[in-house]
């Protein structure tokens, strides 16, 4: 679970719960509830803040492994494009819908 990974990475870095919360600019109580797996679906924004302070890829918090073992390497342009989409207000659900539509359209053109 994400909470276990956050706690493991925090302890590996020698940070207290208070230090991580303060440095990342998140509520200590919310971070605590994540680590205790009371809250199990943190936002990508929250994970970005935490991963930045812990100096680990978000994938490490999500999957417990390094990004290179879980996902293909993305060049900077793809990363920037995804970041720009997020900052423009596109939700994860909207992005998923776009991908599904694009797959459907691609399949239709093959038929």
Q: What are the main properties of this structure?
A:
about 110 residues, mainly alpha, 434 Repressor (Amino-terminal Domain), about 70% helix, about 0% strand, elongated
Can you describe this structure?
InterPro entries: Cro/C1-type_HTH, Lambda_DNA-bd_dom_sf, SinR/SinI_dimer_dom, SinR/SinI_dimer_dom_sf, TransReg_Diox_bact_type. It comes from Alkalicoccobacillus plakortidis. This is Helix-turn-helix domain-containing protein. Keywords: DNA-binding. There is one protein chain. It is built from eight helices and no strands. It has 111 residues and is mainly α. It has two domains: 2-70, 434 Repressor (Amino-terminal Domain) (Orthogonal Bundle), CATH 1.10.260; 76-110. α2 (17-24) crosses α4. Mean pLDDT is 86; it is low at 67-72.
Determine the mean pLDDT. 86
How much of the sequence lies in strands comes to: under 5%
Q: What is the CATH level 1 assignment of the largest domain?
A: Mainly Alpha
Helix percentage range: over 70%
Count of helical stretches: 8
Report the strand count: 0
Helix-strand sequence: HHHHHHHH
Taking all Cα atoms into account, the compactness measure Rg is: 17 Å
Helix-and-strand structural type: mainly alpha
State the CATH architecture of the largest domain: Orthogonal Bundle
CATH topology of the largest domain: 434 Repressor (Amino-terminal Domain)
Number of domains: 2
Query: What's the assembly state of these chains?
Result: single chain
Largest β sheet strand count, sense and barrel closure: none
Keywords: DNA-binding
Domain Sin: 65-103
Domain HTH cro/C1-type: 6-61
Pfam families: HTH_3, SinI
């Amino acid at each position: 679970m994400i909470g276990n990974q956050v706690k493991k990475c925090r302890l590996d870095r020698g940070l207290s719960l208070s230090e991580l919360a303060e440095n990342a600019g998140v509520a200590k109580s919310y971070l605590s509830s994540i680590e205790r797996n009371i809250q199990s679906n943190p936002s990508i924004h929250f994970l970005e803040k935490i991963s930045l302070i812990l100096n680990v890829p978000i994938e490490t918090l999500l999957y417990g492994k390094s990004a290179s073992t879980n996902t293909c390497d993305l060049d900077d342009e793809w990363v920037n494009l995804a970041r720009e989409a997020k900052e423009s207000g596109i939700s994860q659900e909207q992005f998923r819908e776009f991908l599904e539509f694009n797959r459907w359209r691609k399949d239709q053109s093959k038929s």
